[in-house]
Each structure stands twice: as C-alpha cells, then as structure tokens.
Amino acid sequence: MELQIKAKLVQKFPATIHGQTFKKMEFIIEIDDKYPQTVKMEVHNDNISTIEELPIGTIANWHFNLRGRKWTNPETNKIVFFNSLVVWRAEVVETDLTEIIVNNDPLPLKESEVTDDLPF
Question: E strand or H helix at 101, and its extent?
C-alpha cells in the first residue's frame, strides 16, 4: 500500500545489519497537525544514504509503504501483529536552518559559495 505524508525529520538512528545483505535504518518524523504526531519510519538498503544525508529539521513529503505481518509465538501460541512504515522516497520541501544550527550541523553551502581565496 503506497502512502504519502508531509512531516519534519526529528531524529535518526544508526543503520543496523540483519543477515548478510539486509540493512535497515529507523528514524522519527513529526507530523504537524492539530494534535502533532511522532511516528517511527524506516528505510532499507540503498535508500539509507538518502536519509543519512538529510539534516534534522528537514521537512519532506515522505513516500512509504505500509507493511504488516502476523507472527505466532511457538511457545505460547500467542499471535502478535507487526506493522512497519517503509520509506522509499523523500522529497525535501524545506530545511529548518534553526534545527541545523541547534544540532551543530554545518550549514549547507552552494557550490558557488565555496572558494579557495583567503581574506588575508
């Protein structure tokens, strides 16, 4: 099921490796609404670098799939359901520079602003 939401990136967790080829990174977004919601999402494998490059405070349109599965505990036969929101694309809407400064992330520079000239 393909869905989309506009929200702000508020926290990123380190990527984890599961098995030999599967990598996963979880992150938190905040949905600005009458009652703001904080939601955990995840990216897999090649999409991890996209989220790693985004600074905290970035507002984006998050395109994701809703996935779920059923698991039965073999010892108790208790049935548990798991849901995950798997992001496959993030379209940056704006970047909150206040968040970048507060988190001590360097301000992004345009290539035209970088020079080798020293002022002295």
Answer: helix 97-102
